[in-house]
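Project standup — Tuesday

K.O.: blocked on the structure for the chain from last sprint. Re-posting the sequence here as requested.
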Amino acid sequence: MAAFPAATRWRKDREQALTPGAVSQQLKQLEERIGAPLFIRTRQGMQLTEAGEQVYPALLQAFEQIERSLGSLGSLEARNARQTLTVSTTPSFAASWLVPRLGRFTERHPDIDVRVEASSDLIHFQRDRVDVAIRHGLGDYPGLACQRLMASVLVPVASPALLARGPLIQEPADCLAFPLLQNSNRADWVLWLKALGVSEPTHADRGPAFNDELLLIRAAEAGQGLALIRDVHARAEIDAGRLVLALDQPWPSDFAYYLVWPASVQEKPAMTLFREWLEQEASYGEV
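H.V.: unblocked you, prediction finished:
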């Protein structure tokens, strides 16, 4: 029969997870199930019986497996304890404004994991598991809470090489001498020209069309034509000299960028911190 330390080790393994009373109860139930005692008392202490010797290795292996599983569970609980926030916004806003700044939020709040989903599609917050969205509009979002972040203006931009080839642009109507790059509904150039006094902007709705401003920017950088871009999206390209203003005639609009989220859902602490940070970043303006 094994000496006392083996019995002690078995009991100690069990006591790591259970109280002494619970351990005794479990041992008693096990002895009743196999119909034989597992321990005997001697002058030297407790010793395993022959039946105890037989079941000890398998039980020890089972306890070790439970311990490993509990360790994995602890790691999982630690990961789940981290705060997560899923943000939906358009590809152009994500690439030109949000992503370049996001590192500052991560430095300030390293315990919050932000996931950015870039899409122009309408979202269903619960179905798509999105916490908050950033959208460009008039702020009319029924059933949703919203916070205005910043307004934007449309500015005509082009590559320096395209403008250098001429003709000279001195007033809005001069833009019609160049190829015009269009947004997806081909409305911006027509509206911009009319707002600036061009009553009949001929062919203002002609030219390649793109469903995202990031694509418009890339086409303009390649010298394919003039593009009307929201200033917040083209700022980096203008600062770097890849694009220049074709005419200093920004067109303000009633549209703005809004942060929107379900009004009926209790706000996460991470969401509150993200809203406060976004408001601060929007007030700074420059990256």
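K.O.: great, moving the ticket to review. The longest strand covers residues 144-158. The chain is about 45% helix and 25% strand.
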